[in-house]
Amino acid sequence: MNDSTGFTGEPHSRFEQAPSATSILLALGIVYGDLGTSPLYTLQTIVHIMGGSFTREAALGSLSLIVWSLIITISIKYCLFVMRADNHGEGGILALMALTGARWSGHGRWLVALGLFGAALIYGDGIITPAISVLSAVEGLNVATDAFKPYTMPIAVVILIALFVLQHRGTATVGRAFGPVMLLWFLTMAVLGITSVVQHPDVLVALNPLHGFRLLTTHGLLGFTLLGGVFLALTGGEALYADMGHVGRRPIRLAWYGLVLPALVLNYAGQIGNFIESPDPGANPFFKLAPAWGIYPLVTLATLATVIASQAIITGSFSMTRQAMQLGWFPGVRINQTSAEEYGQIYVPFVNWTMMCLTVALTIGFGSSDRLAGAYGAAVSTTMVLTTALLYQVMRRRWHWSTARAAAIAGPLLAVDLAFFLANLFKIADGGWIPLLFGALVFAIMMTWHFGVDALHRRTMAQSQHADAFFADLRDQHIVRVPGTAIFLTRLSHRIPPIIVNYVKQGHSLHETAIALTASFESVPRIRSSDRIHCEQLCEGVWHISVHFGFVEIPDLPAVLTNVKKIGVPIRDKATYYVERHDPVSRRRRNPLARFQIALFAFMARNSAHAVDRFRIPSGSLIEIGSRMEI
Q1: Strand order in 576-585's β-sheet?
Q2: pLDDT of residue 209
Q3: Alpha helix positions (H), 139-219
Q4: pTM given for the model
Q5: Within a 13 Å sphere around the CA of 588, how many CA atoms are in the beta-carbon half?
Q6: How far apart are the first and last CA of the chain?
Q7: pLDDT below 50 — which residues of the chain?
Q8: How many beta carbons lie within 10 A of that of residue 449, not counting itself?
Q9: pLDDT, tens digit, for every residue of 266-282?
């Protein structure tokens, strides 16, 4: 493939295969949980914003805005353009950032910052999505009876806690049921919508975009504020792109155009038609579509659908953490692989329990989906603006489009994104500051970690030794070579790292096979086996080995080194791994802000995952050497 198509390397295998029914079901289960459950609370929020101004014309205008927002943002922006920008089959804002070719150490640092901040905001969205989704589903019980009203929030909390507690088991088994459940959910939504539309066919006039335009222009600030409610119908749009590597582009598109979009439009139209005939601002318009006998089964199905939507954002947060960690933007955290076959099946305990505490706190603090909707959307709308800005750079740098052509596409899309972004700013006082603050904290952690690692690297480089000088010392000082293999993990590739220099200086000996091993993560998802390992013999018995991993791969150093033996490096089966664990301290001439940043980095460094956890090194073969280093 050439760059004009948007591809940057070998196509992912899923991209070449014709989509099957199984892959489309997989797309329904993994990708569309958030978008698919948005009808539970979108119109309810719009009614709350409009209050007494929600007349028949306002209702038709709201439907028009929802439908055309779905078409412009999801059908056109994401399905047609953003999803063309895949990084060897992988999607997501970090992959989009990598496609721009920007580097923190070179030109385009601001593009890297945009991508990282957008990724950080996804965590902010991740703590609200499960809360509002599950709350809105359980609140459907209130349509049947008022008896459950005092218990809807506690029931939602119990469901959310159970969801997070079960994460350590992995999603492989439960995931097989996600697709069929979501298929049933979308078919149910479509049937409920069609039934109402048949009874109120006049709502179809809302397909004319003029109704939405009139609503925005005739209601002043209220009409513009309404966009914050309309935007709830789009939350989950980023999942189409982020989950592209798991499912593939074509199944996602086919599922969207063939089922998801029609089901959403029909359901929203049905809700509007039913509301116009019998207004009830206090009830959830979605559950009002169901007959009395169907309320409880519908609440059960809605709860399952919202759990699936929550599962998708939790799994996405796990994957985002691993990518950021392996690209050097996040401290090492323990990651458990829950499936031997699927790399995406992982569990990150720290992220899981942090998200659970914050999600449950939000659920208890806000108490209802109606109130929580005020905090929802600010982070996602910001991420969508950043995605469009990065997409423009990919059009110019990677696809080599002209400025006029790129601006003609990205300009209108950015205008729509900015309108939603500005409308969501009105939510900040109602709780929108929460996901933005959380995203900003994650971004600050990313920047601090990168700053600290870079400072340590510079100090390590200053304390390293030139290879020729080191080998001269080995000969001149008659350093004893003892039996065995020592593998020293280091970030340096062209000089002898301090860990080896100090080891020789303190022990006056060196193993007969000494390996300086550098493990690096590249900005592509996977590395070809032929490009995985680079070996160089520095002198007799001393080697430098570089091992390269993609940012979605599971680093397994012992397995890789088994292949190194096949190309002539004399590694014994019981090799000893040495890794240096730094204790960073601040220099005295630092300003208070810098000292605080170094203190934060030192805290993260001391509590980050050990090499034995990150690289699957046998615990009995690892020796950690502590050192204090001023930065």
Answers
A1: 533-539, 542-549, 509-521, 480-489, 576-585, 622-630
A2: 94
A3: 141-144, 152-165, 172-199, 209-218
A4: 0.81
A5: 0
A6: 45
A7: 1-16
A8: 22
A9: 999 999 999 998 888 87
